């Protein structure tokens, strides 16, 4: 206990608070590695939040709720892929439009679920490990989505670094024309990457409404999708740095809640904006520190692909 703040509780809360952003950022990393800039992450998260909440409440199953949230995010990402990869609309404008679309649609469908409690998502039982002092609450007292998010980061790192499919995806992101000339299906690769990214954004949104809050509140993502986008860029498109950035955001979020609970005389508005401001500042500093030798953005990022070229 330091200054009225329980450090063990803080670190344990950090992992849960980081999960929605970590999921969304991991998915966006894959999409951007394929050369697509998806600014619709916020819309996919909020749509996943309401779809996951509605599914869980209707079926009584949080697992189906998470699947519903992931599916909603993937569907919106599919719409983004259709508009940008097949109809060649501007990626930036389309992403912003779909964010507004997701926010509006979620507000409409969420009206009937306000004030409703979702079915609880149980924490995994690790037996004696959960009772260990310090390590037990920090590492072995979480729900399965927290561990899934960590496994997805590891799997994404291994996929991009060691698999042939990951090499193809990176080739598409670096030079789509050359990848097409080699016979790779650029649009199919990008469609799959976007669907994966959208599913993870939707899963992150569902985690917000089913576990983090847990209730449906209009606009409850509160900019988490934009933080995920910033984390990917400042992490230099590396999964391990995405993990650090997401946990930094989650740690500051958990800390500001603990400061409020401890009764510190800090204006609530300053505490509320602290996770966003501090995360961005630290990421900017880290990005500047590692600029020398750090990989640039995928060369084809944000550029539409013309199969005839």
TrEMBL record:
InterPro entries: ABC_transp_permease. GO terms for molecular function: transmembrane transporter activity. Pfam families: BPD_transp_2. The chain crosses the membrane at residues 6-24, 36-57, 63-83, 95-113, 144-160, 191-210, 216-235, 242-259, 265-286. It is found in: Cell membrane. It is a multi-pass membrane protein. The keyword Transmembrane applies. One of its GO terms (cellular component) is plasma membrane. Its main location: membrane. Keywords: Cell membrane, Membrane, Transmembrane, Transmembrane helix. This is Nucleoside ABC transporter membrane protein. It comes from Rhodobacter maris. The lineage of its organism: Bacteria, Pseudomonadati, Pseudomonadota, Alphaproteobacteria, Rhodobacterales.
